[in-house]
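In practice, a research group might receive sequence data for several interacting partners and want a quick structural hypothesis before committing to experiments. The following worked case mirrors that situation: the sequences arrive first, and a predicted assembly follows.
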Amino acid sequence: MLLIPCPWCGPRDESEFSYGGEAHIARPREPESLSDAEWADYQFMRTNPCGWHREQWLHAHGCRRWFNVERNTATYAIRAAYRLDEAPPHREDAL
Amino acid sequence: MQRYSALNIARHAATGHRHWEPAWRQAAPRRRYRVLIVGGGGHGLASAYYLAREHGITDVAVLEKGWIGGGNTGRNTTIVRSNYLWSASAALYEQSMKLWEGLSADLNFNVMFSQRGVLNLGHTLQDMRDIRRRVNANRLNGIDGEVLDQAGVKKRVPFINTDPGIRFPVMGASWQPRAGIARHDAVAWGFARAADSLGVDVVENCEVTGIRRENGSVVGVDTSRGPIDADRVGVVVAGHAGVLAEMGGFRLPIESHPLQALVSEPIKPILDTVVMSNAIHVYVSQSDKGELVIGAGIDAYNGYGQRGSMQTIEHFLSALVELYPIFSRMRLLRHWGGIVDTCPDASPIIGKTPVKGLYFNCGWGTGGFKATPGSGWVFAHTLATGEPHPINEPFSLQRFETGALVDEHGAAAVAH
Ligand SMILES: Cc1cc2nc3c(=O)[nH]c(=O)nc-3n(C[C@H](O)[C@H](O)[C@H](O)COP(=O)(O)OP(=O)(O)OC[C@H]3O[C@@H](n4cnc5c(N)ncnc54)[C@H](O)[C@@H]3O)c2cc1C
Ligand SMILES: [Zn+2]
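A structural hypothesis for the assembly, expressed as tokens:
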């Protein structure tokens, strides 16, 4: 069971949250100018790392807000939670 | 290969069973092979076996980072069926079913394949319409199937709760008589032994750490036991597909999730078939030892930890006791998790990658055990010829660009 630190409500039990997958996937600004391969990359391809992962969570049974979490997919440790308008606290190469 | 037979058992009994040979050699990796298969699960071993048997290619090694059967092959709940909706899937899973039917004899290893049938329950009118559609599609594809009403379900599983007042009342089911279960360890061991006997090197404790490429073509791999060259490399690592793709310099439409299962204490025979429910998200069968084998859906988050959260278990156990109140006081013996490679359309990816000579077989997610022989059979063809077999052609990585997805969420929505 994960203990997830909601940036607004503090640490809460995983059962209050729902998962939103990989974070920081930006919707293309001009979808019509994308090739099929670029669209597939946006739509379907995922980094799926074994290790640190930036991901989206929704505090569904709490404040009902989305936020991002840095969680290790191998150990399940969580080292940061940050709001959507905040920059990720760790650099890319620390992932 | 030392054959297993009643006569041989009697012979070895005379010497106290002290002289059986190991089922496969402890092969050390050579410096070069024609074909390398990464991942010694059922699918990788079956690929090696059919490469040797169907295509005469024996200069092959299977590289496994742990031990044979330590991955999902040895962690799944062993349901085998072929009642998928679309013709592309029907061809793939039914090819597998046909191989299952002769597998123990082919491998000279008892995989305990037991065709005890599978019920997929329907709980709403729409469920029942979808079931009717799927059974009709199955029959048009030559796959056995029937639609049962509630009385038909009750006849097969007399203790199922058919109270109309429960949250998801049982209205009926699809019934595939040829479906069933098999002994998962035996499948891994049987394929390992049969491949080994045809000359394949089954190399355990050998982790692939890099995929070596030159001018866009694969030339070999780096491993924890040194570099190995190869003309072709087939990657069959289930939950680790994304990790190996990164080594190859590309991404996959796959996410790795924990999938959990559990077994109860053993009891007298009570359930002689397999019952699954997509809507309530639980399935159950009874092993030959008498344990109930119970599973359900994935944990929602990405995870490589081979463990998931207790709330997921609570969820499927509450579904179990609503459907089968008779099980409510049973004790559970063990529970565990595997890492499954889920794909957006609930269908596998079997074929070419952006790297020449590098082939992937992955994305089986929660439901690849049933496909073990068929997956190996088509992947062997792909590795031998460099081109997909017509059966795995629709399952290319390319489909995520063309949009020709093979959406099997209806037939595959619960983990099985
Ligand atoms: C709990 C659970 C229940 C399931 N129930 C069912 C079911 O009832 N019916 C069904 O059809 N399917 C079921 N499945 C799915 C099924 O188990 C899988 O789809 C299938 O076993 C995948 O086959 P595999 O041989 O590729 O996997 P695996 O047995 O996982 O083989 C992959 C192997 O690759 C190895 N590997 C990984 N990385 C490397 C590396 N870098 N170098 C070398 N080796 C590496 C791993 O150690 C592993 O042994 C279930 C899965 C789980 C977890
Ligand atoms: Zn909150």
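Before designing any experiment, note the following. The radius of gyration of chain A is 15 Å. The beta strands of chain A are 3-6, 10-13, 18-22, 52-58, 66-72, 78-82.
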